[in-house]
Amino acid sequence: MPFLRSDVLGMHRFRSLSIVTLLLASCVAWSQEDGGFDFSVYEVDHEGSHIRLLVHRAGGLSWFGHSHVISVGGLSGSIRVYPESDRSHFELEIPVRQLIVDDPLLRREEGDEFSSQVSEKDITRTRNNMLGERVLKAERYPIVKLTGTGARGDGPQLILDVMIEFLGSVVELQVPATLSLDAGILEVTGAFALSHSDLGMQPFSAMWGAIRVADEIDFRFRIKAHEKVPEKVPGSLSAD
Hints:
single chain; 10% helix; 8-stranded antiparallel β-barrel; Lipocalin; mainly beta
């Protein structure tokens, strides 16, 4: 099954990975006097973060297939937050081969549509289709990279401008997000819908479209990052 499809209209633009943008932009950073910096750096906690794509079945024989939960493993990146939100920026990387298909726990969390039991054989086939030349082309494009700068909005509700490097192209999206910052922990959460066409992809299809992937993909994310204590710059002068 395909990794993503993006149909991002107005505030609902992605590209899965989309996620990190939220974090960077909305924080209000304070000056770190010890190092003379006017920004804060946050490193993504991959274990405390998640990105999920809900890929829905479609077609006249859709009951022969399954809707799928695709989750991101190995997420990494950092966010640099300035007092002026338009200077803040982030970078995230998603290793394509660490995408996870149909984790049983995540399927249970997503409700009735995902309640069917998916065999290991079906999971392997879906993953091979997803990583292959018809969809993600993982051999040629092993990393999906997300970068972004600035944010729009007041308070915790933000709109983030995100650029995604995907399949050799750059996709620009706007992502709605909610941000929280407490005791050095930054969290950004959000959800939106995507379509394959925005990413230059075709939905996976078999039996002349009787079994296929729906055009829309639901995207959900929670990005958690911890503040990194800045190190002294080598060679800096002491106040003593």
